[in-house]
Known about the structure:
five-stranded antiparallel beta sheet
Amino acid sequence: MATLASIKNNCRKVICIGRNYADHVKELNNQRPKQPFFFLKPPSSILLPSEGSVLRPKGVNLHFEIELGLVIGKTVRDLNENDEWQSAIEQYVLAIDMTGRNVQEEAKKKGLPWSIAKGYDTFLPLSGPISREKITDPHGIELYLKVNGEVKQEDNTELMLFRIPRQLSDISKVMTLEKGDIILTGTPKGVGPVVTGDVMEAGIRIGGKEVEEAKMRVE
Amino acid sequence: MATLASIKNNCRKVICIGRNYADHVKELNNQRPKQPFFFLKPPSSILLPSEGSVLRPKGVNLHFEIELGLVIGKTVRDLNENDEWQSAIEQYVLAIDMTGRNVQEEAKKKGLPWSIAKGYDTFLPLSGPISREKITDPHGIELYLKVNGEVKQEDNTELMLFRIPRQLSDISKVMTLEKGDIILTGTPKGVGPVVTGDVMEAGIRIGGKEVEEAKMRVE
Lengths: 219, 219
Ligand SMILES: [Mg+2]
Ligand SMILES: [Mg+2]
Ligand SMILES: [Mg+2]
């Protein structure tokens, strides 16, 4: 299994699905998408557990979004939704899609790209790698995120509006997926702000049981 | 000097400056930006001269944008506009920022990211690498692009609204630049559609003289 450092080194693009949980769409007053849409974060935004804290740029309202991440294991192009898709995934990671919410809202209003709001250094903390054997059904796991001990996000991936094969299909019809690419599958409801000094703890539970590799603690 | 194949292999992000020539801002009825903004194209969109044609996805109004590209040679973080910046650039490339204009216009209207409009496979044709010795002043070269022999774009990089040190500064304060990253510095006026079968020819002139390495021909 690839180490986390090699995941960072080998990553050439991070593709993030937007608005993939109905209650999260509502909480930000967004339109529910008719098809998956996605955006890119740069690999330079990845923050490994050993690399310290998320940095809040001056004037930025920093929001957390807990998401299940897929690490791609091979070249994938034009996948169909009903094709075998499991073998495209080499392993999983838990990820926090840190977002400059005020920067994003201004971009949305002006019709500008989201890349700055999503792309600052340290805006993509990752957990340790999680093997496919641990996550036999990625559509049936619970993601959670706490801030200073208080639960903020806690939902099951069964609530995804577009499931992983549909995501892989739609993305790979636009851009070829390459070994090492990371896909973030969207965030459930409960996103909110953090400030310097806050501690985010996040993880995955399967059938109520904590997955040790997925445990994250980020300041 | 790095070969073009190694430029593609080593590229981990492509950062594109938007609206950086006044007449191009006007032709698309856009607002002139108060500061540089930028978006990402995935490395998977790079098309080398040996790799065939730009592919127009079904239903997409495909536009060309000729741009001077910078290939980054070292890690750059928090550069100031007045710092020495030339050494950050390892070499230059000429690039066409292919854009799904209707996809982008719809994204702009809905406040959605530009990543799909900009990120399809083959949407980033590159010329051969051009050494720094050839381009002693990147703010004083002429870019041109012809379609089927007819000149569509032809302007000098002296018209950039934000010059390269400002671009490097603004980008590197958001995301760390890494060796191999590519920056597209914006397109002059004259962008327009191409259809399957059209031939784009592009190049750079310095003092009226063609730079051989920059010559491109893409179908
Ligand atoms: Mg997200
Ligand atoms: Mg974008
Ligand atoms: Mg452009």
